[in-house]
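Protocol step 6 of 9: fold each sequence in the batch and record its structure tokens directly after the sequence line. For illustration, a two-sequence batch is reproduced in full.

Sequence one:
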Amino acid sequence: MGHNIRNKLDKLTGGNDSLRRRRQGTKAFEYHVDCLPDAAREAVQARMARQLLAQSASLPARATTTSELVTGAGGEKVQRELALYRKCPALQEKKLRELTDSQKAVGDARMVLVQEVLRLMDNSENGGLSMKRKQAVEFIADASVAGTLPDYVQRAA
């Protein structure tokens, strides 16, 4: 049975050497997840994502620049406002004091969700398997509806 699986995987790589490599020191081959059929690839990605989300929430978030997060219509205006707030701490303090406890809680919850999306997108943290932003957001949204997220992420959602 293993022989047939290996033959099938070899066919799925289409002769692309970047999708297949020999595991160092063994006879085994490793295949990139992209050569799998869609259903199998999605199952592997979902399993890896669940494992990653289940890890401790104490891991540091990946540093992200504002320009990575603020895109689309109005993005330049938001970036200018953020730059102004950074230059003027008094203005920033005034704006923060105006926020209600509910608004602060919503902001904190959004940051938890953003952090988890970034973790799913960062292939160095999850064994080389990275998701596109849309995939990561959809995975967290679907898991939220199903109630299968770790508690701290479920509360944030």
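Sequence two, same batch, same settings:
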Amino acid sequence: MRAWLARFWRRERRPRQDLPDALWWQTLAECRFLLACSAPELARLRELSAMFLEDKEFHGAQGLVITDAMALTIAAQACLPVLHFGPGDRPLRSYDDFVGIVVHPDEVVAQREVVDEHGVVHRYEEALAGEAMHEGPVMLSWRDVTSASSETGYNVVIHEFVHKLDLQDGLADGCPPLPAGFMGQPTARAARNHWQSTLQLAYDSFREAVIKAERFGTEPTWLDPYGAEAIDEFFAVTSEAYFVSRERFGREFGTLLPLFDAYFRPGR
């Protein structure tokens, strides 16, 4: 109840304090893909970033000290996917299920355990550049945060925060909650079906291209092959590219461009 009341009373609030000009311009210089935004969009992104920093808690792991510049670099990129999700602080409600952001200096090796169809337990290690869990914190590798690239379409911050959008309904299935009327669909279920069928076709094509590149030496895919692991990862990987290299994304994934536009830029 308290959490609900807190969200109610801060409805469409404004940041208590503006970001210093020098710090903001430093962030734009380091994340140059943000300059593709219009002047009003940048002003809105700045406002959202300030509120995000007020809401979230940053923790450095393994002795990493989080500076204001590091926190803002993450905040601005985290706010980009929700930039057009409404006035005031409404966009940040998509991130209401967590507070903590843990930043490691480099990749983290996680111990994994899966049980196969025969009941056999398999244990393995997985190197993580980031991780997002439903109702849990976000983990990021600072080295990977600084490795964002428009050339490769890579951006770990956007990747993990898009996972948060996907997980709003508790399902990691590559489909965020969608309203009735999305892309002209009469119901929320129809909107979901349209999204899933469109994304699935693009995912199947991408996965085939990854397999051909790995097995037969054909041209490597532009985007990280990790997107072929599962459809929720494909959604996150393609979202990275959508925001950091929109022009090439449109050439590579023409069927996804109107889908992502309708979701990430509603009303435009």
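Proceed to step 7 once all outputs are recorded. Observation for sequence two: The domain at 1-170 is CATH 1.10.472.150 (Cyclin A; domain 1).
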